[in-house]
């Protein structure tokens, strides 16, 4: 368990975008140690379509216990059209998806098997569309884990060194309308839309008619 600095409570910079919809219960994140093992599963709340990751338990949903992680580091938001987006919240050390550094405040669509890292944390999140399989992999890890986890090979502990920030109650995040005039940039969030469906290629031309027999 990492010892982390005390952070002032009640501050928030995540704004719920207008396009936020409901989460899909079959999706989740598997949390992987540097060895590749699934050490935990992060599921979405049934009553809202987003998760905020960070180092301040007072204003995030999932606590990420690494010194390089910002108080509110990143958010995952479900679109009303059932697309899921990853958003870096202007973190100091960055958010990566499949090794690519995200541009702050610009939503990036994520797909199953995409890999996400926060700052310099050794924890890796993988987006999964099979919640039952994720739970099975976690149970297999827990059965094989050391009896005394404090003697495990890495110091970030379980989850992200993580406990969901549900006690005290989850923080209240402002909506885009509530944030107007507060100085928080919402233009890119509100403008985020899923990409249009790929155009189908035109059908091949019909074969030429056979030559006429003389």
UniProtKB/TrEMBL annotation:
FHA domain location: 51-102
InterPro entries on file: Cell_Proc_Reg/RNA_Proc (IPR050923), FHA_dom (IPR000253), SMAD_FHA_dom_sf (IPR008984)
Comp. bias intervals (Pro residues): 193-214
SMART domains: FHA (SM00240)
Disordered as annotated region, ranges: 162-214
Organism: Rhodosorus marinus
Protein name: FHA domain-containing protein
Pfam families noted in UniProt: FHA
């Amino acid at each position: 368990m990492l010892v982390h600095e005390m952070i002032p409570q009640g501050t928030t910079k995540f704004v719920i975008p207008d396009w936020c919809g409901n989460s899909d219960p079959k999706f989740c994140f598997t949390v992987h140690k540097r060895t590749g093992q699934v050490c935990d599963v992060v599921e979405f709340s049934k009553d809202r379509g987003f998760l905020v990751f960070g180092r301040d338990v007072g204003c995030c949903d999932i606590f990420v216990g690494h010194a390089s992680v910002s108080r509110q580091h990143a958010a995952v938001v479900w679109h009303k059209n059932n697309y899921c987006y990853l958003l870096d919240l202007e973190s100091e050390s960055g958010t990566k998806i499949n090794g690519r550094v995200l541009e702050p405040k610009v939503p990036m669509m994520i797909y199953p098997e995409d890999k996400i890292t926060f700052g310099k944390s050794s924890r890796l999140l993988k987006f999964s569309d099979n919640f039952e399989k994720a739970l099975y992999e976690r149970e297999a890890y827990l059965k094989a884990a050391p009896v005394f986890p404090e003697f495990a090979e890495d110091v970030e502990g379980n989850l992200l060194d993580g406990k969901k920030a549900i006690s005290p109650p989850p923080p209240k995040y402002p909506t885009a309308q509530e944030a107007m005039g507060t100085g928080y940039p919402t233009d890119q969030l509100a403008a985020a839309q899923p990409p249009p469906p790929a155009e189908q290629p035109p059908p091949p031309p019909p074969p030429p008619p056979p030559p006429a027999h003389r």
